[in-house]
Amino acid sequence: MLRPTTWCTQPGPSVGRTRRPRRRSSPRSHSASSGCASALPSCGGGSWKQAGRSCCISGLQVRHGPRSNAESYSVDKVAAKLVKVTSAVQHTELMQVLDDRLIATTDVPGLGVKSGWQLLSQSSQNGGSGTSTPQRERSRGSSLNIAGRPLKTSPSRNSMAEDLLNLRNASNFPVELSFADPEGYREVEIVFPRPRCIYAVSFLTTGDERQFDPVCWEIDGSVDGSSWMRLQTQSGEFDTPSMRRCPVETFFVTEPWCKPQGSSLVKVDLQKIPAAVSERLCFFANSLRAILKSGDLRPGRDTLLDRKVGNVPTLTQVVPVYEEQVLLSEEFLCASDGRNSNLGFTISQAEDQWEIFARKQGMAPRELYNSFTCGELHEWVRQAEVDQDWTKAKEIRELIFEVRFWASQRSQTVSRTVLGAIQYHKVLEMLPSVQASPQTNLEGLVQLFISHQTYGHKKQKEEVDQDIRSLIWRYRQYPVFLVCDYDAELARPSLKEMVTCHAAREHNFTGRFQYASLLLAFNENYVQGQPEENIVKVVEVLPRVYPLVLGELEHRPPAAKTQGKAGNQLQALRFAPGHYLQMMDANMGAFFGEACKVPFILQHFQPAGSDRRTVQARIIGFREHIFTGSHGAVGAAMADAEWTFGTICQRFLAGLGARMHYGHPDFLDGFWASNRGSMSKASPVLNLSEDIFAGFNVLMRGERSTHVDCLEWEKGREVSFNSASLFFTKVASGNVGVMRSRDLKTLTGSMNIADSFSFYFASVGFYLYNVVTDISMSAYVFIFVLLTLSSKSLDDIGKLDSLLAAEWVISFGTLAMFPRLMELTLEYGIMEGFIRFLPSIPGAVLVFTFMNKSIAEAVGSTMQTGIASYVSTGRPPANDHYGWRDCYFFYRESHYYPAVRILIMYAVYRSLAETFNVAALPMMVLLGTACVWLAGPMLFCPQPTFWSLRDDLSEFWCFVIGTPHAERSVNLKEVNLEERLAAQKDDATANLYDVWLFDKLKHKRAPMLARVMEIAVAMALLVVMLAVVFGTMVDQIRSVVLLVLLNYFILALWRVFGRPTILMMLSGVLWICAVPFVLNSQSLGGQYGTLLVAFILTFQALTVIEKALLLGAWVCLRPDPDCASMPESSIEELRQKRDAARRVQSYDAVVEYFYLNFMSYQWHLYVSIMLLAVNLVVQLGVAVLEMLGGLQSWWLLGSKLRGGCCRVRRPEYKPPGSDHDPPSERRIQLSGEREGLRSRLGKGIS
């Protein structure tokens, strides 16, 4: 990995000097005199041994005031050492220690040469002032002074090799040689003639290549030369100009808190920096007022840089990880969504950041993108390995990793969360009290626990473990720990060996334990080249009796079940030493400026100077910045909703004293949580929404959960339509578990009426509201059907002053948008607030019309089954294209069929209104809602093309007409028919017939009471329908029954001839043609309403008959679905098992018979064909918009992906640039295009 130069200048009022550069990856050590970090140097081209450099500046430029001109101070540090070789023996001894880069590999005591010294040419020694050394690749001629006779070298990019060749051929002695001492480049000291203020600092480059320029540094100042104060830290890499021996023309201002009082302010034009940076800086500056107004800051003690180690509360950060993405893989980034690669989509959201990153890597943006996505980097690695150039191969692999890391930092990954948590570590590390105390350990102030449940498991992909270890290696200088679950049966051999050795070495335990919680940390003794598993070491082992698993296990008692995220949090809590805890999800992040405010926020727990009896809060929440808001229309809608809930609602609920803990990156009182039931509850059924129970725990014990507005952490949300719907399904199901919990009952039983209202909306109110709203839609249409059957017109309803007589255009849900509008105007001003609010209305209305139905359906289904299942959304990117078949599996019961039922009821209402010649309401809002439920997934499906439409249509059509092929014979291993059906989404052979037959067979395990209640409800509905309709409508049932009998004959032929698709299509044609035939007969006179009611009555009667007959068959056969587990050790047991299997098979055959002949399968078939037509029309229109101007991609994904106009095949997105630009120097170096020249020179040297 290329590591940038770190140089430190300490210009102060009287003295300034360049301190030893701090290597970021080295262990932290501190100088006792100055508090500056000290370690081995590194440089822009690699380590000292790789490039022969540590820093390269020829002068410093200092501004001593905001309006003063820059003053230049030359740097004439000479780091050359003269060595005299007097004999051939000394010459041979020297040649043995010099490598091909003219660097001494070991000491030569006889000559005074030290390891790491680099041989210089005479021209380089006298080449001017500055701290530069000769270029590794020079373009001009140079000379090497041997025995007073300069030997000329040709202008070559490999003059080092030629210098070495000339030196080896030397025969006349003595020879005087110049060596560069690397220690001489560790610091640069500038002494001012009198004490002066340091306002800003810049530097001048040298004549060396640009790749060796400094990119980050630290500046300290001193008055007496012994006590130093940090003035400025440049931790981000700085892009130096290409011109040599010139000023960089950028001045780096010292931190405001280090400047004298009364300094003038610095104006920053926020229009000239990236929008994301501008927004973060604006909030950071505005939020400081809230901290200053808190009144708890004591001058000289409570400011950030004045804080002593004992005044900083210890914080433990916990990141629970199970299946979350740690780092985006190379395969994922190169994969295409049908048009663009995933890396291309990520770049399109941050073009300016990609350009900065590519320039730092020495390549053009388009060049680096093409090299990565086309696989050129892997080809270069392979070629380097063939040439045995291991250094180059490692460099290319590190470049691949850097690209992956860059993309991961702009996605919802664990690495982004870890980097955000590390920002607070960097804040504490820069405190003067920490730097001035060598004995101070950062681990005593903050710890980051990555609680990875499946690390080291054989079932886990090895690539995931490698990514975790790469993060620990990258941040090895910080207190980053890995907490994992140990299972002796599932653990990899390397982890088992580490645990066994630790137990024997630390505890003299040589026995065996099955389960344990492990605390791992970076192994300081690890040396590159060792097995990668040795990067971590075992710090602590806590054996357990039971495993930490998701859901149920047969060998565990029911009381010992755990839920995934809660189990991870509890496991980390066992090792957490911090006074306070920060719970984070694996899709968060943090801005460095926000991390600077964390010590001030932690003061809200306990006033300064008080003890544990005066704790003011147990949970402190704060704002969230949803960084995925720029990832398309769905991401923007989800970000707006999360911002509204996480900021506006949290602030309001905290004021009412009803705020809970909702899974946000809240701070918790660690001592209190470890003694009062952890941070969440872990039952996998009741506590699916595990975080809110921490808030319940706080409220039940009479404690406070508060909220602050001056801190804002980053958080991601779902950006794909399907994943967003699945997220709301999961949360809604979890809230049913909350309703069933004992915590809710305890809280509501002890609240007054005012607190109950607040608590209702803080817990389950929103979800129950959606259920009531969903039920009211069907009830609304049904009421008008009953009124029409009663011959009540709109005039009759209006005379009763009823609101039902008017069309409702705006619903109460519209009011939910106003809190966000008010907050936007408060934060951004009226004009900017409306500019941000108005464009978001269409997308938000469409998205949440669909999502609210997901919530209502999830609550209703979970109430029926009593099981809240965890749903993994996967957090796919916004450009992830999904098919029609996937949408059918996701939404068939939650959205499609409810929409079809509403449309059928509305059709009945309009037909009856025409039949009875009364006016009818248009119900535009209702119809629009149903249409959104049907067409929503297609409207938000990204990157539609005519080719993707063809593939989706073909896939869905094959699914609809697929022929069932499950074996129907008795199988003692798979007795139940549903076990052999192709009914799962992940099964490529799944078909419509098997999917709904599988659903029919579910009730086989239902108890008698549930089945009787189901029949009673169906019968009551049939009785009500017969009671409210006219007799003429009931008379038409015989016509529908006749059609059913005819359809039965066609289905018999369908079974006889091997289930051909043509006969099933013929059945559909029969029903279509029968409608006008029946209307023209029986003297209906074209009354569609009467015929529709007759159809509905007939099918409801068939449903009742089917359920009754199935109940009778179930009572007679008594099928045992679990008979496959019956013993068969004897002939009698085998006979009983086969008899039970035959009963199950007979019952399954009865279910399938009624499923096919009582119109269930045909109903699903016709609805699926209707959905196919809807999807085709909607996506065809969207594809046309894409072809005309990329309008759908512009709205859904962003303007960068819009493309051109009137293009059938639109090109993929690529970063700015041209594919025909000349290659960069870095590409030429990595691709090996100069190997021919190097090979020739190598032969000459040999």
Automatic annotation (TrEMBL):
<feature type="transmembrane region" description="Helical">
    <location>
        <begin position="802"/>
        <end position="822"/>
    </location>
</feature>
<feature type="compositionally biased region" description="Polar residues">
    <location>
        <begin position="1"/>
        <end position="11"/>
    </location>
</feature>
<feature type="compositionally biased region" description="Low complexity">
    <location>
        <begin position="122"/>
        <end position="134"/>
    </location>
</feature>
<feature type="transmembrane region" description="Helical">
    <location>
        <begin position="1163"/>
        <end position="1185"/>
    </location>
</feature>
<feature type="transmembrane region" description="Helical">
    <location>
        <begin position="1036"/>
        <end position="1054"/>
    </location>
</feature>
<feature type="region of interest" description="Disordered">
    <location>
        <begin position="1212"/>
        <end position="1246"/>
    </location>
</feature>
<feature type="compositionally biased region" description="Low complexity">
    <location>
        <begin position="28"/>
        <end position="39"/>
    </location>
</feature>
<dbReference type="Pfam" id="PF02364">
    <property type="entry name" value="Glucan_synthase"/>
</dbReference>
<feature type="transmembrane region" description="Helical">
    <location>
        <begin position="1091"/>
        <end position="1117"/>
    </location>
</feature>
<feature type="region of interest" description="Disordered">
    <location>
        <begin position="122"/>
        <end position="157"/>
    </location>
</feature>
<feature type="region of interest" description="Disordered">
    <location>
        <begin position="1"/>
        <end position="41"/>
    </location>
</feature>
<keyword id="KW-1133">Transmembrane helix</keyword>
<feature type="transmembrane region" description="Helical">
    <location>
        <begin position="1061"/>
        <end position="1079"/>
    </location>
</feature>
<feature type="compositionally biased region" description="Basic residues">
    <location>
        <begin position="17"/>
        <end position="27"/>
    </location>
</feature>
<keyword id="KW-0472">Membrane</keyword>
<dbReference type="InterPro" id="IPR003440">
    <property type="entry name" value="Glyco_trans_48_dom"/>
</dbReference>
<feature type="transmembrane region" description="Helical">
    <location>
        <begin position="918"/>
        <end position="940"/>
    </location>
</feature>
<protein>
    <recommendedName>
        <fullName>Glycosyl transferase 48 domain-containing protein</fullName>
    </recommendedName>
</protein>
<feature type="transmembrane region" description="Helical">
    <location>
        <begin position="1008"/>
        <end position="1030"/>
    </location>
</feature>
<feature type="compositionally biased region" description="Basic and acidic residues">
    <location>
        <begin position="1212"/>
        <end position="1238"/>
    </location>
</feature>
<feature type="transmembrane region" description="Helical">
    <location>
        <begin position="766"/>
        <end position="790"/>
    </location>
</feature>
<feature type="transmembrane region" description="Helical">
    <location>
        <begin position="834"/>
        <end position="851"/>
    </location>
</feature>
<keyword id="KW-0812">Transmembrane</keyword>
<feature type="domain" description="Glycosyl transferase 48">
    <location>
        <begin position="278"/>
        <end position="1069"/>
    </location>
</feature>
